[in-house]
Design goal:
This is DBR1 enzyme. The protein is of the alpha/beta class.
C-alpha cells in the first residue's frame, strides 16, 4: 500500500490534503494512509491556542477546527504523533490515543496500532532530561513551566515501548534518534544546516531515548521531523544472537509543511491484502498497557523504571502469548478501533471570537471508554484526584519566563545516560530570541484568522512531494564501504519534478522545571516554524 509521510504540519491541514489531492489528479497516485510526525497543532478554539508553547504573536488558528467541527473531513486516514508545538490540553485528553476529528487519529503519549496488517508505533513529544523521569502531572490551565513540560517525553513511555517483542514496521518520533546522522549523508546535512555541526561532532544532536528505542525495536522504517530538514539514513543493526536475522532501519526526516519545501513523501509498504481497511488496536500493545498499568505516576517526583539491579522484584513487563490471547478474547477477536469521536470543546467561530477563553481540564469520553474496556487507569482522572488532594497545581500565568536553551530540542541527557553535554547546544538561526518580543502579549492581540477560503494554487510548485521506492537510503560521506554497498543496493531516492511519480462532553475544571545552574539561560522561540515565507539562508 502507499503511505504518505509528512513532517511538521503546524496546523496547515488544508495545504497537506490539497497536496495529496493534486498528487492524485496529476499522477493518479492516491495514498492509503497519511502519517504526520508531530507539530500537528489540533487547535479547536482560542483556549487551545493558549496551551500551545509559542509566543503569542505566532498563535494562529489555522484550519484544523474545520475538521473538528465537521465542516470538512480528512480525505485519507491520518495518524499522527505530538511534537513540541501542540494544543497540549487537547492531546492530553487522549493519553492512550484517540480520534481528534473524524478520520484523524492521535497515537497518544506512545502507542502502537495496525492498518492493513502494517504495525505502526510512535512516541509523542521531545526529549528533555529534567522531565524525563517525572510522571505526567501537568493539567490545564498550564503555567509557563507546565505548558512546556507537558510535551516532554517520559521514561514510562519508553519503558512500555521497550517491552515490545513482535516486529514493528513503522515507527514515528518527533525529534531524531541521537547518532542517526552518522548513517546518512552527514556532509550534505551540515551543508544545509551548518549550525548543527557542533552537536553532530559532539554526538549530542537528537534524542538519546529515541536512539535507545531505535536500537531495541529495529523497525523497518523510522520517520521523524522537528529539525525542518529532509534527511535519509540507513542503519544496519547488529543481531542479538546467532538465531536472529539481520535487520536494518530506513530512516527519513521530513521538512516542515511550506510551499516549495519537500515536506511530503510517498513510500510503498508491504501489507496484508486480506486485512480490512479499518484502523485496529494492537493486541500486544494493549497487553503491555495492562501489564504496566500499576506503574502510572502523576507526580513531579523523579523515578526510575524497574530494572534488573536487585532493587525491583519485577523488571520484565513484556507479555506472553497467553496474555495477548486474553486481550483478543476480551474483544472477541475484533480489534477495530471504534469511530467514537465526540467533540469535547466548543469549536472556533470566526463570527464570534472568544479571545479570553480559558482552557480547562477535560476528561475525554474516548479515554473513559478505552480504560473501562481494558481495565486501565485514566491518567486525567488520576490527575484530577491528585489535584483535589492538593498535590498537583495548574495555575495559568501570562508572564513569559526563561527556558533552558534547546536549539534542537534534545541537547540534554538524563541521569541514566553516561554523559551530559547539555551545554553544547548550538544557536539555530531559524529561531528568534524572546528578548526581542517584549514578552507574551495578551491573547486578544493574537491572530486567530483562519486560512483563506480560497487556498493558494500549488500546481506551479509541486516540489512538495517525492515518491519513494521500496528503499530510501542515501550514501554517507563517512560510512564504511559495506554500508555504501547496502545503500547502492537499496537505491537512492531523490526524484526531481521531472521524474514520474508512478514509481515504485465531560469536564472537570482543573512543578516547576528543574533547571541546571551550569547551563546558560536564554529566551527563545522558533520563528521559522510560523513564518510562511521562511527560506534557509544556505539554500
Amino acid at each position: 500500500m502507499k503511505v504518505a509521510v509528512a513532517g511538521c504540519c503546524h496546523g496547515a491541514l488544508d495545504k497537506m490534503y490539497e497536496t495529496l489531492e493534486l498528487l492524485q489528479r496529476r499522477h493518479n497516485v492516491r495514498p492509503d494512509l497519511l502519517l504526520c510526525c508531530g507539530d500537528f497543532q489540533a487547535v479547536r478554539n482560542e483556549a487551545d491556542l493558549r496551551c500551545m508553547a509559542v509566543p503569542a504573536k505566532y498563535r494562529h488558528m489555522q484550519t484544523f477546527y474545520r475538521y473538528y467541527s465537521g465542516e470538512k473531513k480528512a480525505p485519507v486516514l491520518t495518524v499522527f504523533i505530538g511534537g513540541n508545538h501542540e494544543a497540549s490540553n487537547h492531546l492530553q485528553e487522549l493519553p492512550y490515543g484517540g480520534w481528534v476529528a473524524p478520520n484523524i487519529y492521535y497515537l497518544g503519549y506512545a502507542g502502537v496500532v495496525r492498518f492493513r496488517g502494517v504495525r505502526i508505533g510512535g512516541i509523542s513529544g521531545i526529549f528533555k532530561s529534567h522531565d524525563y523521569r517525572k510522571g505526567h502531572f501537568e493539567c490545564p490551565p498550564y503555567n509557563q513551566q507546565t505548558i512546556r513540560s507537558a510535551y516532554h517525553v517520559r521514561n514510562i513511555e519508553v519503558f512500555k515501548l521497550k517491552q515490545l517483542k513482535r516486529p514493528i514496521d513503522i515507527f514515528m518520533s518527533h525529534d531524531w534518534p541521537r547518532s542517526i546522522y552518522h548513517y546518512g549523508n552527514k556532509k550534505q546535512l551540515l551543508k544545509m544546516k551548518s549550525f548543527f555541526r557542533q552537536e553532530v561532532e559532539s554526538n549530542t544532536l537528537g534524542s538519546p531515548a529515541a536512539s535507545e528505542l531505535l536500537q531495541h525495536l529495529k523497525p523497518t522504517y523510522w520517520f521523524s521531523a522537528h529539525l525542518h530538514v529532509k534527511f535519509a539514513a540507513f542503519m544496519q543493526h547488529e543481531a542479538n544472537s546467532k538465531e536472529e536475522l539481520p535487520k536494518a532501519t530506513k530512516f527519513l526526516a521530513l521538512d516542515k509543511c511550506l510551499p516549495h519545501r519537500d515536506f511530503l513523501q510517498i513510500i510503498d509498504i508491504e501489507h496484508d491484502p486480506s486485512a480490512g481497511d479499518s484502523l485496529e488496536y494492537d493486541a500486544e500493545w494493549i497487553a503491555i498497557l495492562k501489564a504496566t498499568n500499576s506503574l502510572i505516576n502523576v507526580t513531579q517526583s523523579s523515578w526510575n523504571m524497574p530494572e534488573n539491579n536487585g532493587l525491583h522484584a519485577k523488571w520484565d513487563y513484556s507479555v506472553t502469548e497467553e496474555a495477548i490471547k486474553e486481550v483478543l478474547e476480551e474483544v472477541n477477536h475484533n480489534l477495530k478501533i471504534p469511530c467514537n469521536f465526540t467533540p469535547t470543546a466548543a469549536c472556533y467561530d470566526p463570527s464570534k471570537p472568544q479571545k479570553q477563553a480559558v482552557p480547562v481540564h477535560t476528561i475525554n469520553p474516548q479515554t473513559t471508554e478505552f480504560c473501562a474496556q481494558f481495565g486501565l487507569t485514566d491518567i486525567n482522572d488520576r490527575i484530577q484526584q491528585a489535584k483535589e488532594e492538593g498535590s498537583v497545581r495548574g495555575e495559568y500565568e501570562e508572564e513569559e519566563e526563561e527556558e533552558e536553551m534547546d536549539s534542537t530540542g534534545s541537547a540534554e541527557e538524563p541521569s541514566e545516560y553516561n554523559t551530559d553535554n547539555s551545554g553544547l547546544s548550538s544557536i539555530n538561526p531559524d529561531e528568534i530570541m524572546l528578548d526581542d518580543e517584549g514578552g507574551d502579549e495578551d491573547l486578544s492581540t493574537c491572530s486567530v484568522d483562519p486560512s483563506p477560503d480560497h487556498p493558494p494554487d500549488f500546481s506551479t510548485s509541486f516540489s512538495d512531494i517525492r515518491i519513494m521506492p521500496d528503499s530510501m537510503a542515501v550514501s554517507s560521506d563517512d560510512a564504511m564501504d559495506s554500508t555504501n554497498e547496502e545503500l547502492e543496493k537499496s537505491g537512492v531516492s531523490k526524484q526531481g519534478e521531472e521524474k514520474s511519480l508512478n514509481e515504485r462532553p465531560l469536564k472537570r475544571i482543573g512543578g516547576n522545571e528543574n533547571g541546571n545552574s551550569g547551563i546558560k539561560k536564554i529566551k527563545r522561540r522558533n520563528q521559522a516554524i510560523y513564518a510562511a515565507e521562511d527560506e534557509d539562508k544556505t539554500e
